[in-house]
Amino acid sequence: FDAATALGVPSQPTDFGETLHVWGVGEGPFLEIPFTGPTTLRDATGTLVDLLANPVSNNLPSREAFWANALKLLSRLRDRDRFAATVESILYDSADSYAQSRLIYLESRRFQLGQLDRVGEAGTTEPDSDFIDPYEDPYAE
Fold first, then answer.
1. Which of the listed residues 1, 49, 110, 137 has the most CB atoms within 10 Å of its CB?
2. In whole angstroms, what is the distance from residue 72 CA to residue 78 CA?
3. Burial degree of 46 (CB within 10 A; 0-12, 13-18, 19+)
């Protein structure tokens, strides 16, 4: 039963990392966590809170909660398979796969959080006027 859809409220998937962003928590250092991939300290904390506060695993019997989490893991593995060509091109075709992965993740996440606006005729993205990129190379030309 989905009461929100019945009342005409659109679904907007979100996570606790987004909530922390709205509360003004900075993104912190970039992390590359094994088996989960790129993230920031804020989003890793949000993911941990999401896992601990998951109503499915907290309210279902342990056997059903196990299968719900196993299905979620299989879904993530399917996503990895679906994007395998992109991930492999980042890992093997770029000069610095870590920097490329960091750049793609941070720009994507910042766009999701509304920190990047689409500006210009070519559809380029420019940071908000008050946004400072902590990962920007100060010596780049």
1. 110
2. 10
3. buried
- The β-bridge relationship of strands 125-127 and 37-40 is unpaired
Name the residue with tokens 């766009």. 111
* pLDDT tens per residue across span 97-123: 888 889 989 998 999 888 776 543 344
Q: How many residues does the chain have?
A: 141
Q: pLDDT of 13-35, one tens digit each?
A: 889 999 999 999 999 999 998 87
82 close to 88: Cβ distance less than 8 angstroms: no
* Of residues 99, 125, 110, the one with CA closest to residue 43: 110
Global pTM reads: 0.69
Q: Where are the alpha helices (DSSP H) in 9-96?
A: 16-22, 41-52, 55-59, 62-82, 84-93
